[in-house]
Design brief:
- The chain has 134 residues and is α+β, with helices and mostly antiparallel strands.
- It is built from four helices and three strands, in the order H-H-E-H-E-E-H.
Length: 134
């Protein structure tokens, strides 16, 4: 057998042994059942609170939430983009999500509108949450 053939057989054998070792290691340390897997959401709720229940670091939210990420060439372009978004909101023509780009500015926004909480409910929730943070 040639030297090349011998090296090829050794490389294949080494690869097979390495593959078996990896399979053994992964099988040994990989969680086998759903119960053995880490519930990262539960850990996050334990350390930071529950955003749905407004506990921990999560303050209550108002009925309408708007988040925007704007990039502009200068403050005038920023003001123009904000003015445009303000007009769209006033005319109730904002979608729940949009991306816009122009010559001197661009933005992405997210809008969530809900019937609750009402203003009075929100005031009660925020007062209770602030009290819990003391």
């Amino acid at each position: 057998m040639s030297s090349y053939g011998q090296h090829l057989i050794e490389a294949i054998a080494f690869g097979a042994i390495l593959g078996l070792a990896i399979c053994y290691a992964v099988g040994r340390w990989w969680p086998k059942t759903e119960a053995e897997r880490t519930d990262y959401e539960a850990l996050e709720r334990e350390h930071f609170g529950d955003p749905d229940k407004h506990t921990g670091i999560y303050a209550p939210k108002r009925a309408v939430q708007f988040r925007v990420e704007i990039q502009a060439d200068d403050l005038g372009a920023l003001a123009s983009a904000l003015s445009h978004l303000s007009m769209q909101a006033d005319r109730q023509r904002l979608s729940t999500h949009s991306v816009s780009g122009g010559y001197d500015s661009g933005y992405e926004h997210w809008l969530t509108v809900s019937d609750e909480p009402t203003h009075d409910e929100y005031v009660k929730q925020i007062k209770a949450w602030l009290e819990s943070q003391k």
